[in-house]
Amino acid sequence: MSLRPTLAAPHRFEIEIKKSRFIAQAGSVDSVDAALAFIASASDVDARHNCWAYRIGELYRSDDADEPAGTAGRPILAAIDGQGFDHVAVVVTRWFGGIKLGAGGLVRAYGGAAAECLRTAQRLERVETCSVEIRAGFAHLGAVHALIDQLGAEKTDERFDADGVTLRLNLRADLCDRLTQHLRDSTRGQATSRRID
């Protein structure tokens, strides 16, 4: 199952609108703490307005940073959603250039800077995964490792004992049932697997 993409790397976009300078910075985040840390690191302490938003699945938050309510944080969040991203935080820093933009102008400027930053960023596709534990005897190690390679699974743990091996794997969620069936068929039911996530 495909998930909404995140960013492959942090990205930055700068634009000047009616002499006000806007710098949008976006980064991939996996937790609220990581989002807040990114926001803190991307914010410029000398700027009056460091407006931001993040989206991590169902968790989201935005802040107007002393701009009129609803003119900065929400448009940034709308840009994240509009560009189809998840697990992303965006900070848009503004330096006032002497010309007032008005509420509509601020919405367009903050939302536009965030959207353009995300539009030009490199995407990283995300895929839902599952974790599986396999228990197999020594006689079936070759078949098990061939299956791991065939399905592109990532081995996260491997423990040997007198009876064989216990493996932990991560793989695409849509391949978990196939792994179980192929494992059963290739070992005549002597190797077992169970989902552990």
* Helix content range: 25-40%
What is the spatial order of strands in the main beta sheet?
A: 2-3-6-4-5
What is the count of helical runs? 5
Mean pLDDT: 90
Q: Which fold name corresponds to the CATH topology of the largest domain?
A: Ribosomal Protein S5, domain 2
Largest sheet data: 5 strands, antiparallel
> Can you say what the CATH homologous superfamily of the largest domain is?
Impact, N-terminal domain
Order of helices and strands: EEEHEEHEHEEHEEHE
Q: How many separate structural domains?
A: 2
Summarize this entry quickly:
With 197 residues, the chain is an alpha+beta fold.
Model description:
31% of the residues lie in helices and 39% in strands. By secondary structure, it is of the alpha+beta class. Helix 2 (73-82) runs parallel beside helix 3 (102-119). It starts with a strand and ends with a strand. The model has no long low-confidence stretch (mean pLDDT 90).
Compile the SSE list and pairings.
Layout lengths: L1 E6 L3 E7 L2 E9 L3 H11 L6 E8 L2 E5 L9 H10 L5 E8 L6 H18 L3 E5 L1 E8 L4 H11 L2 E8 L2 E9 L3 H11 L5 E4 L2
Antiparallel strand pairs: 1-7, 2-3, 3-6, 4-5, 4-6, 8-10, 8-11, 9-10
Helix pairs in contact: 2-3, 4-5
Which short descriptors sum up this protein?
alpha+beta, 11 strands, Ribosomal Protein S5, domain 2, 31% helix, 5-stranded antiparallel sheet, 2 domains, 5 helices, 4-stranded antiparallel sheet, Alpha-Beta Plaits, 197 residues, single chain
